[in-house]
Specification:
single chain, alpha+beta, three-stranded antiparallel sheet, 2 helices, 50% helix
Length: 180
């Protein structure tokens, strides 16, 4: 009989221990679920904050364009139109910069860098030393720290000993155009 009582007591202890483990597992599950929900809420908040930054920047750009349009009262000459469009492009680049992305414009003569630049044409180099350098930038690139958001489109200098040097851009062979 004492063996039966002892077995019943062990069974009871085992059942209680199992119930405690079940309650602990349920609490852990509740904590994990709560933490997961909180992480998802924070992620949504971060995305919305980033989108708000872009939205506000684009709204400022929109307002800038409208302000510029109000000042146009007569047909613009080429120089005035170029200056206006350049100012708007600069404002767009400033808008992008507010998101942590900086404009990168390669300078003529710097070495062509495939990691940062995309060749879209070639021009005759003035000397063998100019081989493989940037002849001119066609479109700016954009960088976020070390990450390349968009490569800069460039015309690359190629040394052709039999060809006379040409002014940059005069005999470019453009292989593609960006439609961004």
């Amino acid at each position: 009989m004492s063996e039966q009582v002892e077995l019943c007591s062990l069974a009871s202890e085992f059942t209680e221990a199992l119930a405690r483990q079940q309650r602990l597992a349920e609490r852990r599950e509740a904590v994990v679920t709560r933490l997961h929900d909180e992480v998802e809420r924070l992620r949504r908040g971060e995305v919305e904050a980033a989108l708000d930054l872009v939205r506000h920047s684009l709204i400022r750009l929109h307002d800038q364009i409208l302000r510029q349009a109000e000042h146009v009262t007569v047909p613009l000459g080429v120089d005035e139109l170029r200056a206006l469009l350049t100012a708007l492009a600069d404002e767009a680049a400033d808008t992008v910069a507010r998101t942590g992305v900086e404009r990168y414009v390669p300078r003529p003569g710097e070495a062509f860098d495939r990691a940062l630049q995309r060749p879209v044409g070639r021009a005759a180099a003035e000397s063998p030393e100019a081989e493989g350098t940037v002849a001119r930038a066609v479109a700016a690139g954009f960088l976020q720290g070390e990450r390349v958001v968009r490569k800069a489109d460039v015309v690359v200098s190629r040394w052709e000993p039999d060809a006379p040097p040409s002014p940059v851009g005069a005999h470019d062979t453009t292989t593609s155009q960006r439609n961004d």
